[in-house]
């Protein structure tokens, strides 16, 4: 079983990123559940705008898409910018739109049977809306969302500071991270054994 983490920070590598930090924490928990993980910092790749699976020569999305097709669980991690997900996360959702027209041999949308979870971090409010927007789009695309499949951290309003700046992970976040991982793995294993009905 595999999890693909798409880190949607606006900061290219090797800059420190709170989205990358919470992703690393989640992947450590997935590893404890026997699930292999891979991280892609999307901004490091030339993911072109558009809603097709391949937007032409030089588009990096097809290689990321191949990793997604091989994964059982998708994690989308995003910072909060002016109360919304990052533009990079929005682009990921736009590119996933192409999956609506892709089907398996039995007529099911290609993402049926895959689980999606989300993480949002920021020093302003907006995490609940971001996760709601991510879940709506991912569910529309065919992903299945587990119970309590979202985790987040918001800093104190109007005070600055980042998740990266914390001396330790708050207990509420650590507990939510653990629940997210347990439920995602449980659901992915159920779907692996019993796929949705054919179209």
From TrEMBL:
GO molecular function terms attached to this record: oxidoreductase activity
Pfam families: FMN_red
Domain of life: Bacteria
Every NADPH-dependent FMN reductase-like domain range: 1-149
InterPro entries assigned: Flavoprotein-like_sf (IPR029039), FMN_Rdtase-like_dom (IPR005025)
Name the UniProt record assigns to this protein: Flavodoxin
Organism this protein belongs to: Amycolatopsis eburnea
């Amino acid at each position: 079983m595999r999890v693909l983490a798409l880190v949607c920070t606006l900061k290219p590598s090797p800059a420190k990123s709170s989205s990358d930090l919470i992703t690393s924490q989640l992947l450590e928990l997935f590893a404890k559940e026997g699930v292999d993980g891979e991280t892609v910092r999307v901004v490091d790749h030339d993911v072109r705008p558009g809603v097709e699976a391949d937007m032409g020569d030089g588009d990096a999305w097809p290689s990321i898409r191949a990793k997604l097709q091989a994964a059982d669980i998708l994690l989308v991690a995003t910072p909060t910018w002016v109360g919304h997900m990052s533009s990079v996360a929005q682009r990921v959702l736009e590119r996933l739109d192409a999956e609506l027209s892709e089907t398996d041999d039995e007529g099911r949308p290609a993402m049926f049977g895959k689980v999606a979870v989300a993480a949002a971090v920021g020093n302003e409010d907006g995490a609940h809306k971001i996760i709601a927007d991510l879940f709506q789009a991912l569910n529309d695309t065919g992903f299945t969302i587990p119970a309590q499949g979202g985790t987040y951290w918001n800093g104190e309003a109007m005070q600055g500071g980042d998740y990266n700046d914390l001396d330790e992970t708050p207990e509420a976040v650590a507990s939510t991270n653990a629940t997210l991982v347990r439920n995602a793995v449980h659901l992915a294993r159920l779907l692996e054994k019993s796929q949705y009905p054919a179209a």
